[in-house]
Amino acid sequence: MTIAAQTSLPAARAAESQIPKAAREAGFAALVMLGLSFPILALRTEQNMSNELILTSRWSWALIACIAVFIARFVQILFRSALAKTLTVFGSLVLLGGLARAAGAAFDTFAASVFAIGVALVALGLVWERRAATTPPSTRTAAERFAWFAPAKPYVAPFALGLLAAYPLLALAAVGQGGSIKWIDNFGIQILIYIMLGWGLNIVVGLAGLLDLGYVAFYAVGAYAYALISTQVIPATFPGLGVWAFWICLPISGLLAALWGILLGFPVLRLRGDYLAIVTLAFGEIIRLVLINWVDFSNGYAGISSIPRPSFFGVPFNASDEGFAALFGLEFSPIYRTIFLYYVILCLALLTAFVTVRLRRLPVGRAWEALREDEIACRSLGINTTNTKLTAFALGAMFGGFAGCFFAARQGFISPESFTFLESAQVLAIVVLGGTGSLLGVVIASIALVGGFEILRELDFLKQVFGESFDPTQYRTLLFGLSMVLIMLWKPRGLVSTREPTAFLKESKAVSSSLVKEGHG
Amino acid sequence: MSTLTETAAPVATAQGPSLLAVRGVKTYYGNIIALKGVDLDVRQGEIVTMIGANGAGKSTLMMTIFGSPRAREGSISFDGRDITQMPTHEIARLRIAQSPEGRRVFPRMTVYENLQMGASINNFAHFEQDLERMFALFPRLKERISQRGGTLSGGEQQMLAIARALMARPRLLLLDEPSLGLAPLIVRQIFDAIRMLNREEGLTVFLVEQNAYHALKLAHRGYVMVNGVITMQGTGRELLADPQVRAAYLEGGHH
């Protein structure tokens, strides 16, 4: 006890001497928050019954925001352990939520339990900080700290694949047929579409280092290719092939998108970085504007509806005698199509990953990466940078086209609304946040961003804290931006920043790429 | 105190036809003229150096030989073939290799992958064999084989840049300021390696340098470039002894 007390004394004293400074800083931050929240939170104009604007005040909101900022800044300065900081700040917010509920609605058991959870979290944070302050800082490297994980590493990929393959069945078992459609469709398929788009864009941005802000254009090309061919060309010329429409159009969509990738590639061959980004951005917008305005071709804003859904290799998913359910002696249910779609997009996404992994080991993949690192050096080593860039654009676009084809088939309806710049930005955010070039990073970022947004829909219980008018999904964009800022501060090279070498003499020795500066040229 | 005690034997100067012939080359950056009509020859088996101050146009000449920027006037031929209008990557495929200014190794790729990039030009025909040769030439690269290019020291990066160029089994090696920013000991190692390659394998080298003393000691012949014009030429020994060269590039200089 005495030894522990002695060793802890200097640290504790240092922390105590920090308190006035921390309080000052936190007070200042709270003042800034007051200034900010005054026009946004405290004052609010509302329309009353007779269409007049009336000024209402929400001083309690402003007060809560200021207190939250005060606590966050105070803890940030005073505490050493990141976990303790997080716990304390989060706990304080929960605690404040409980108080707000008690003050606003009623002091019921719900408010009490929220309050209690908040107190518990804060206490846990304080205890953890006490522990962290009295133990000397760890000198172990990241590799040593995660050494316990090393034996499990080879099993991560097979386990993840198994989990992906079993996911629809797990969802079915957990919440039954009615409930699982949402989980398989909104979570599973939605996330997998973005993983596939992320992996496709990763070829262009992550491997070849060509910043593409118009990737959604290829997604649109794929989607419209399927929609137009399956609703107009196939019924008019080969009506017998209707059930096979998806499987015929899938490769066509990919090829058309690849062609557009090459078309975009040619004019931008000499551009890099910012200039390339602007031209690709414009390209994405041009495709969308053409789809809106060329009404004869694309039906404009109204979009294309009744797009045929994919069949189970010629067997349609309907209630007829030739339908999937009847053929396999099952009772008809829409769930079979959803599960099938899940496996289709899973296979498409895995195909993208497989091609990426294989190509990285081939000369063309190495040339992409070398191109990203240094274009001039590449050329002087005899690499045809024109062809290298065009193959990257074409391949990335092709996978975008596949994803677009799938998207059209899954939705049954498409319109230019689905292919806005925001879509490109989100896919690019997934690639960058995940760590450019990393396949695993794309998966993590997709689950966090896309899955996170879907989770917001499930947070209805927050209404009990913040009142009935509170809609968590409105905070989608705010959270999106916040997560980008935080990840870029915390891990500027993305979540997975190590680049795995593709070839070894003996064994690999990973040196984090965060130690290495970017290529130039 | 010289770090390089031997001078390359001038007898090795072959009097055959030029492997690389530069004739009246003028290169512009926009409207600004950088090379004002350069004539230069590199013969089979020679080490030829070009010395000059910062901004004299040495690197521009190197880049012009490689086709970017392109010469606006004049001609460049390699082994009797006109390469003036050829795209850079096709020039490289004639087996002219370059260790470019600023080394330009691929920073996030390992040493091994960097060397692979050098060998991709001849489809890895003799990859293993060439890899061993590079390890013999620069043993440091073997120690660093799985390290990323960007984590190497400056000297190691220069060795890697030269080794990467040599993996293509070049008929002509262009070196742009290999001594830039390196410790004297490392410079010596690198220049020794170049000399050895020239003696034992007959490698033809064209070397651009600011470090005039070392470069002239190494080279069979040298050129002096001032403001985009070649003002002097001669054997390495002649130039080293020339009072003008001594005054401009050697006195109070690098040795």
TrEMBL record, chain A:
<feature type="transmembrane region" description="Helical">
    <location>
        <begin position="155"/>
        <end position="175"/>
    </location>
</feature>
<feature type="transmembrane region" description="Helical">
    <location>
        <begin position="110"/>
        <end position="128"/>
    </location>
</feature>
<feature type="domain" description="High-affinity branched-chain amino acid transport system permease LivHM N-terminal">
    <location>
        <begin position="24"/>
        <end position="86"/>
    </location>
</feature>
<feature type="transmembrane region" description="Helical">
    <location>
        <begin position="86"/>
        <end position="104"/>
    </location>
</feature>
<dbReference type="Pfam" id="PF02653">
    <property type="entry name" value="BPD_transp_2"/>
</dbReference>
<dbReference type="InterPro" id="IPR001851">
    <property type="entry name" value="ABC_transp_permease"/>
</dbReference>
<dbReference type="InterPro" id="IPR043428">
    <property type="entry name" value="LivM-like"/>
</dbReference>
<protein>
    <submittedName>
        <fullName>High-affinity branched-chain amino acid ABC transporter permease LivM</fullName>
    </submittedName>
</protein>
<feature type="transmembrane region" description="Helical">
    <location>
        <begin position="275"/>
        <end position="295"/>
    </location>
</feature>
<feature type="transmembrane region" description="Helical">
    <location>
        <begin position="26"/>
        <end position="44"/>
    </location>
</feature>
<dbReference type="InterPro" id="IPR021807">
    <property type="entry name" value="LivHM_N"/>
</dbReference>
<keyword id="KW-1003">Cell membrane</keyword>
<feature type="transmembrane region" description="Helical">
    <location>
        <begin position="429"/>
        <end position="453"/>
    </location>
</feature>
<feature type="transmembrane region" description="Helical">
    <location>
        <begin position="339"/>
        <end position="357"/>
    </location>
</feature>
<keyword id="KW-0812">Transmembrane</keyword>
<dbReference type="Pfam" id="PF11862">
    <property type="entry name" value="DUF3382"/>
</dbReference>
<feature type="transmembrane region" description="Helical">
    <location>
        <begin position="244"/>
        <end position="263"/>
    </location>
</feature>
<feature type="transmembrane region" description="Helical">
    <location>
        <begin position="390"/>
        <end position="409"/>
    </location>
</feature>
<feature type="transmembrane region" description="Helical">
    <location>
        <begin position="187"/>
        <end position="211"/>
    </location>
</feature>
<keyword id="KW-0472">Membrane</keyword>
<feature type="transmembrane region" description="Helical">
    <location>
        <begin position="59"/>
        <end position="79"/>
    </location>
</feature>
<keyword id="KW-1133">Transmembrane helix</keyword>
UniProtKB/TrEMBL annotation, chain B:
<dbReference type="InterPro" id="IPR027417">
    <property type="entry name" value="P-loop_NTPase"/>
</dbReference>
<keyword id="KW-0029">Amino-acid transport</keyword>
<dbReference type="InterPro" id="IPR052156">
    <property type="entry name" value="BCAA_Transport_ATP-bd_LivF"/>
</dbReference>
<keyword id="KW-0813">Transport</keyword>
<dbReference type="Pfam" id="PF00005">
    <property type="entry name" value="ABC_tran"/>
</dbReference>
<dbReference type="GO" id="GO:0005524">
    <property type="term" value="F:ATP binding"/>
</dbReference>
<keyword id="KW-0547">Nucleotide-binding</keyword>
<protein>
    <submittedName>
        <fullName>ABC transporter ATP-binding protein</fullName>
    </submittedName>
</protein>
<dbReference type="InterPro" id="IPR030660">
    <property type="entry name" value="ABC_branched_ATPase_LivF/BraG"/>
</dbReference>
<dbReference type="InterPro" id="IPR003439">
    <property type="entry name" value="ABC_transporter-like_ATP-bd"/>
</dbReference>
<keyword id="KW-0067">ATP-binding</keyword>
<feature type="domain" description="ABC transporter">
    <location>
        <begin position="20"/>
        <end position="252"/>
    </location>
</feature>
<comment type="similarity">
    <text>Belongs to the ABC transporter superfamily.</text>
</comment>
<dbReference type="InterPro" id="IPR003593">
    <property type="entry name" value="AAA+_ATPase"/>
</dbReference>
<dbReference type="InterPro" id="IPR017871">
    <property type="entry name" value="ABC_transporter-like_CS"/>
</dbReference>
